[in-house]
Amino acid sequence: MNEVNEDLVRDALMRVIDPEAGMNIVDLGLVYGITADADGVQVQLTMTSAACPMADLIVDDAHAALEAVLPRGTPVAIEMVWDPPWTPDRMSDLARAQFGWAP
């Protein structure tokens, strides 16, 4: 069984694709925080804008990705946060390069 930790959670969230951007939510910089231990998992997510039409789908996909790797019955809480607001500066170098924003 997989040990519940931040790396496991981050790896699972890398399978969640923002359908508008065509990239995973980790590289897009949408994951603001992860707390993971034997008591459960808490993830803080944001969207590129508060009006993101894909927010519910992304949250549902994140839950599914986590449930696929976590021990059965592990509590999962996903919180939407808006502060600080998302900017492209939060993206990984890989994401910036894919979108042509690399230095």
Describe the structure.
The protein has 103 residues and is of the alpha+beta class. Helix content is 28%, strand content 21%. It contains three helices and five strands, in the order H-E-E-E-E-H-E-H. The strands form two sheets. The protein has a three-stranded mixed beta sheet, with helices on one face. The longest helix has 15 residues, at 55-69. The radius of gyration is 14 Å and the shape is globular.
Task: Please render the helix and strand layout as text.
Elements: H1 6-13, E1 17-18, E2 23-24, E3 31-37, E4 40-45, H2 55-69, E5 76-80, H3 93-98
Parallel strand pairs: 4-5
Antiparallel strand pairs: 1-2, 3-4
List keywords for this structure.
103 residues, alpha+beta, GMP Synthetase, Chain A, domain 3, three-stranded mixed sheet, two-stranded antiparallel ribbon, 3 helices, 5 strands, 21% strand, globular
In short:
The chain is built from 3 helices and 5 strands; from the N terminus they run H-E-E-E-E-H-E-H. It is of the alpha+beta class and 103 residues long. It has one domain: GMP Synthetase, Chain A, domain 3 (2-Layer Sandwich), CATH 3.30.300.
**What share of residues are in beta strands?**
15-25%
The mean pLDDT is: 93
Low-confidence stretches: none
C-alpha Rg (nearest Å): 14 Å
CATH topology assignment: GMP Synthetase, Chain A, domain 3
How do the strands of the widest beta sheet line up side by side?
A: 3-4-5
CATH superfamily: Fe-S cluster assembly (FSCA)
Query: Strand-and-helix sequence, N→C?
Result: HEEEEHEH
Strand count, sense and barrel status of the largest sheet are: 3 strands, mixed
Helix content: 25-40%
CATH arch. level architecture: 2-Layer Sandwich
CATH class: Alpha Beta
**How many structural domains does the protein architecture include?**
1
Number of helices: 3
Which overall shape is indicated by the principal axes computed on the Cα atoms? globular
What distance separates the N and C termini? 41 Å
β-strand number: 5
